[in-house]
Amino acid sequence: MTKKENILSIFALGGVNEIGKNMYAIQYSNDIVIIDCGSKFPDESLLGIDLIIPDISYLQEHKDKVRALIVTHGHEDHIGGIPYFLKKLNIPVYATRFTLGLIELKLKEHRLLGDTELVQIDSESICYFGEINVTFFKTSHSIPDCLGIVFDTPEGTVVHTGDFKFDLTPVNNQYADIHKMAEIGKKGVLVLLSESTNAERPGSTPSEQIVGDHIEEAFMKARRKVFISTFASNVNRVQQVVDASLKTNRKLALLGRSMVNVVTVAMERGYLQIPDGMLIDAHEINELEPERVSILCTGSQGEPMAALSRLSSSNYRGVDILPEDTVIISASPIPGNERNVSRIIDNLFLLGAKVIYGSGSVTGMHVSGHAYQEELKLMLTLMKPQYFIPIHGEFRMLHQHRLLAESIGVEKKNTFIIGNGDVVDIENMTARQTRKIPSGNIYVDGVGVGDVGSIVLRDRKQLSEDGMLVIVITLSKSERRIISGPDTISRGFVYARDSENLLRNVNGLVKSTVNDLQKENLHQWNVIKQNIKKSVGKYLYSHTKRKPMILPIIIEI
Amino acid sequence: MTKKENILSIFALGGVNEIGKNMYAIQYSNDIVIIDCGSKFPDESLLGIDLIIPDISYLQEHKDKVRALIVTHGHEDHIGGIPYFLKKLNIPVYATRFTLGLIELKLKEHRLLGDTELVQIDSESICYFGEINVTFFKTSHSIPDCLGIVFDTPEGTVVHTGDFKFDLTPVNNQYADIHKMAEIGKKGVLVLLSESTNAERPGSTPSEQIVGDHIEEAFMKARRKVFISTFASNVNRVQQVVDASLKTNRKLALLGRSMVNVVTVAMERGYLQIPDGMLIDAHEINELEPERVSILCTGSQGEPMAALSRLSSSNYRGVDILPEDTVIISASPIPGNERNVSRIIDNLFLLGAKVIYGSGSVTGMHVSGHAYQEELKLMLTLMKPQYFIPIHGEFRMLHQHRLLAESIGVEKKNTFIIGNGDVVDIENMTARQTRKIPSGNIYVDGVGVGDVGSIVLRDRKQLSEDGMLVIVITLSKSERRIISGPDTISRGFVYARDSENLLRNVNGLVKSTVNDLQKENLHQWNVIKQNIKKSVGKYLYSHTKRKPMILPIIIEI
Fold first, then answer.
1. Could B468 and A472 be called an inter-chain contact, meaning their C-beta atoms sit closer than 8 Å?
2. Per UniProt, where does Zn(2+) 2 bind (chains A, B) (predicted)?
3. Does residue A155 carry a catalytic annotation?
4. Which CATH superfamily includes the segment(s) A208-361?
5. Please, which pLDDT band fits residue A22 given cuts at 50, 70 and 90?
6. Do B51 and B41 touch, CB atoms closer than 8 A?
7. CATH top-level class for A8-203+368-440?
8. B472 near A CB under 8 A
9. Which residue of A has its CA nearest to B467?
């Protein structure tokens, strides 16, 4: 790939055609600036995988050019890949005070704290990376201290929105700086990269304050303990829970590691106001009158090991949900999590709790942090970009976002729907999407990063569906006959004790297969193994309609 | 379990605290009548399982008392278990003309057709089973020819609603017989069993006709081919697709085996009117002008092997979705299927199609077949039962349904929320829930029914997450030393070629473990195996944070 010097290039290493692992890059001449480095949770087809992070081999190849990682905000899909990234490419990380707090938690976990330069910025900061000048603007989202980013280059200005909504009555002063956005737009934007999560939804997101009103109402009505579960990082939601507890004269307990960690960071850094003496420990809950206690807990997505799930199955030491307690789920289930959340709600009702659940619009207990169509159109209108790249979304969301851009006057040909690895090059004010760089999913499994590939996953899939059968035979080297075995060991296929006949027949089949081959003077191991696999596989499928993995093992003595 | 003679007993073998595998029973004295025998699809935790059916061991034990299986309608969660049931308990099956058609398809597949007495009934039929008189009433649902069932017993009347909604402007005359229901209620209902699927949803379901209007509008607007995907069994929806095709002068092709099968049954039996010459074969699609063709296909739930999924990945022989074609998804994704449906929509947009998708209320392309809260209240009001048993739903739905019953005057203590296997006994007009009969999930995997249990599933889970490592050593019987191996074979754990070091270290560890044991004169196989598992497991976890299944195999020569 040859490339001229003074080209402005934009590409994604994650975040387009998917929700998760956001990672974008702006390159001008010999300077590359990275935006975000997220992770993504695997879907159920990726058996045993813990986490997915972006493939950064292109950046490693060009590491002399990579100047900085700028982080728009502290959600996992924007910071979850940072520890893995820094192990490969140790560059300075720029983020706001709160976002840095969350990144530091993460680096501490990976024992990386202190190894990397962390630079605190705010919406008034200016940074220079070669000929790229970087400035920022405040946005509203479901986590404090979010930034949009402005890259001024000799070729023109590129704006990256980060995640945003327009909340005109936000909690804790987390205002979007619409005036600054208007100024940026007025000066002229060459390329806008804007997030697309809710591009399918008409209208505008309700304000976070609406949720506060509903929480307060539920707290007022509750005559016993109130449990409320939400994302720990939604500090403004947490603030509203604190406020409702205060108004109803309740002490507040925090359950779940991430809740405690994030609240601690938010308090230390001034993003959350909790009066002295209000927080209590879990073991103090039972010492107070039920109507004097509220409990904020993790697990709103039904995560099996999180606090809410354990509470719902009466499995949280020292804390019980009792009849007439109130439980509020202040979140919407992310697609894929519905069943786990439903199971928890069932269990909560079984415990006799009053459960307030259901999609945000029904209960008023949740609002999205991502702009709906009218807000996306407002961003597009403010920025009036010449070129538009919808990011942060699956294909249908990017597609709908393109239609929104068209509706406010961006020509269809000036919108680039890119995939991860696609590069948009801009030269002389003209943008083209012609080349591709390496990109992809790196799987994290345990401590292994990238060591689980398609073969291992294919094997796991087969093992998960039909289990396996190990067949061991010992052959005599000299006489070429079976001197021990066949021994069969089955796991995940049939329960051996119930299937003695089947396994006995397999043994017979293996013997006759091996003997037939010996008669034909075929002694190569791989021939014997292939024939065992074939005959046993055929027999088992015809008798069970299952295809376990068959592992013949031959020992020669 | 002793039981007096003249007791009326009601129980469920499937369908409560779950969605799926509905099976209920009414017993009076020595006569048991079964209502429905459904199946359920496994969730992702049941690795490799194809289907779940009810445990009918209680009925097998009392097979001399089981008189009949009455089927309310032809959905899988009401008929899917029938072939397995009949193999164990060959009793007459009663159902309406259309429902019988679908049951016959199923029996044909299992090669059971002709083995069982199939009795065709309609809403005017009367059946006698001992002292139980059975009559019926018509209901509206998302499949034709549905029945509610009335059991008159010496103890009183039991009504089972089947699945229903109140559609006052239904398609193809599928009216609910409200007058008959009112009469039944007026005569007095002792116990009502009513379905709870939508007990969480306020208001009423829109009429099926609304969908027809929207389909027609989309067909009018479309300038090229129209693809529409819905449940094959929703024959009234299919009728509306036929009507829209007719009005826009399009021929209609059917894609997908179940679509062809069900449409054939519906036409033969008079539940669907399709003009002669309107249906075309798939291979004729390309011979017509695109604006003269519509295609009705399976796969609205994102099923990977169904027609829509294959069409969306350009993998359906002879039929292509081209730019500007219209694709309508006339269904809502069932929880758990969202990701598969979304993937298909992404692919359809990539092909350039106009896709009409999203929840029914947004597009008007789908309405539910299950009563919402106001309709459930109407049923409760019509029947005015003394006792109420909410059925057909997960716990939170049953719980909400109980609240609805309370709201129209059923005393809380007279509602029984039962689990599968719980029995409600009624004697002298007094109901009690005191005893339990065997019930449960039977897993179907391939041809195996019930042979996959918790041990096999636990093994599949471990194998699916971290794979396995087989370690083979051959010991000399006489000298008690390793004469061959250790040989290690890994599947689904690490890719062996990338992990030579790790596996070499495992071999070393196995050798030293075995040698240490020999020195201590410990020769028992199980001791050697346990020690290998322990030391290798510990080593692997510390180096990979994974816990593969470790299978030590010892050959003694």
1. no
2. 78
3. no
4. Metallo-hydrolase/oxidoreductase (3.40.50.10710)
5. very high
6. yes
7. alpha beta
8. yes
9. A460
Q: Which of A261-275, B434-448, B518-532 has the largest mean confidence?
A: A261-275
Domain ranges of chain A: 8-203+368-440, 208-361, 454-556
Q: What is the C-alpha to C-alpha distance for residues B504 and B508, in angstroms, rounded to an integer?
A: 6
Does domain B454-556 sit in CATH 3.10.20.580? yes
Residue of B nearest to A458 (CA): B492
The three-state secondary structure class of B513 is: helix
Question: Where does residue A409 rank: exposed (0-12), middle (13-18), buried (19+ CB within 10 A)?
Answer: exposed
- Tell me what ipTM this predicted complex has: 0.86
Per-residue pLDDT tens over the stretch A375-415: 999 999 999 999 999 999 999 999 999 999 999 999 999 99
Quote the tokens at residue B275.
């003009």
Out of 3.40.50.10710, 3.40.720.10, 3.40.109.10, 3.40.50.11190, the CATH code matching B208-363 is 3.40.50.10710
pLDDT tens digits for range B444-457: 988 888 888 888 89
A42 — contact with chain B (CB < 8 Å)?
Answer: no
Per CB-CB distance under 8 Å, the chain A contacts of B43 are: 339
**Binding-face residues of A in 52-71 toward B, CB within 8 A:** none
List all residues 6 or more positions away from A181 whose beta carbon is below 8 Å from its beta carbon. A137, A148, A379, A382, A383
Q: How much is the pTM?
A: 0.90
* Contact yes or no for A545 and B446 at CB 8 A: yes
**Average of pLDDT values for B351-370?**
87
The better pLDDT of the pair A17, A478 is held by A17
Out of A394, A464, A489, name the one closest to residue B48 (CB). Answer: A464
User: Among B441, B444, B449, B442, which residue's Cα sits nearest to residue B50?
Assistant: B444
> Among 3.40.50.970, 3.40.50.300, 1.10.3720.10, 3.60.15.10, what is the CATH number of B8-203+368-436?
3.60.15.10
User: How does strand B251-255 pair with strand B279-280?
Assistant: parallel
Catalytic entry in A160, A370, A375, A401:
A370
Question: Residue B492: which of A355, A459, A546 has the nearest Cβ?
Answer: A459
Q: Is-same-fold flag (A8-203+368-440; A454-556)?
A: no
Count the residues in chain A: 557
Residues near B108 by Cβ (< 8 Å), separated by ≥ 6?
none
- Which of B347, B395, B452 has the CB atom closest to A350's CB atom? B395
Tell me, what DSSP letter sits at residue B433? E
Residue numbers of B between 333 and 372 with CB closer than 8 Å to A:
335-336, 338-339, 342, 345-347, 349-350, 355, 358
